[in-house]
Write a structure and sequence with these properties.
The chain is an alpha/beta fold. Helices cover 37% and strands 17% of the residues. A 7-stranded mixed β-sheet has the order 7-6-8-3-1-2-9, sandwiched between helices. A two-stranded antiparallel ribbon has the order 4-5. Strand 4 and strand 5 form a beta hairpin.
Length: 246
């Protein structure tokens, strides 16, 4: 089975917390608030792969759905990190746990049926960080200690490049696949025989370059994922219902 998640899909803030972000619309609309283009990319992959999609419904500045609940540095932002513990717990109960629990339940149900799950977590990154250009169009993140993820990622990169996409693809870039994130948490719950967690990072430079370039990237990645996940001994297709879930 294949599932797709998009943790930083939107920059929405629930009405009851809007006062915390007064005058901060610029931040909410930046990469600090959400991953521009990620939601559209996730929808395309979900549709192409006939895979269920689980999208975050609040800004990462409210709570970061891609961080572990024990991450005291990054889970809450400077807007919410100083709230009373009861208010932070309220956010966890209302927005964080429902999202994470839905994904975990879907994976567990498939694993208990004897299926292997490929989890594609979709993100985008800024083309320049701390004054340094990130020379990459697509990053594929995985845990190098898990041979199944490593093998899948190497094959996926080769498939994208060999198709003549013209995309620069790098492994475990611009972040390390073992860093705290949704897939890293899931790996602690499920062995590699049952679960592969792959994080896709697309450069926002391609998204902002215009529809044509962005559509080519989405198509190239979709086709490469379909081929790689459908190879003999790793056929992960046709076991899940397509559709979107918040």
């Amino acid at each position: 089975m294949i599932i797709v998640t998009c943790e930083h899909a939107v920059n929405s803030v629930p009405r009851e917390y809007a006062s915390l972000f007064k005058g901060s619309s610029e931040l909410l609309n930046s990469h600090y608030g959400f991953d521009a283009g990620a939601e559209g990319l996730a929808v395309t992959l979900s549709t192409f792969l006939n895979a269920p999609l689980y999208k975050g419904s609040v800004s990462r500045l409210l709570i970061d759905l891609n961080r572990s609940s024990g991450n005291t540095k990054s889970l809450f932002s400077r807007f919410t990190g100083r709230l009373p513990s009861a208010k932070r717990e309220e956010i966890l109960v209302s927005w964080y746990r429902p999202f994470r629990q839905k994904v975990e339940a879907a994976v567990r149900e498939s694993v208990e049926r004897g299926e292997r799950v490929l989890h594609i977590s979709v993100h985008t990154f800024t083309p320049v960080m701390k004054g340094k250009e990130r020379r990459c169009h697509l990053g594929i993140l995985y845990d190098s200690a898990r041979s199944a993820e490593r093998g899948f990622s190497v094959e996926l990169k080769k498939e994208i490049v060999s198709a003549g996409s013209g995309l620069i693809v790098r492994l475990n870039y611009p972040y390390r696949g073992k860093a705290d994130g949704h897939t890293a948490h899931m790996r602690r719950l499920f062995p590699q025989e049952s679960y592969l967690g792959i994080e896709i990072e697309a450069n926002q430079d391609v998204f902002y370059a215009g529809k044509e370039r962005w559509e080519r990237l989405k198509e190239a990645l979709s086709r490469a994922l379909s081929v790689t996940s459908g190879r003999p001994g790793r056929d992960l297709h046709g076991t899940g219902d397509s559709g979107s879930s918040q």
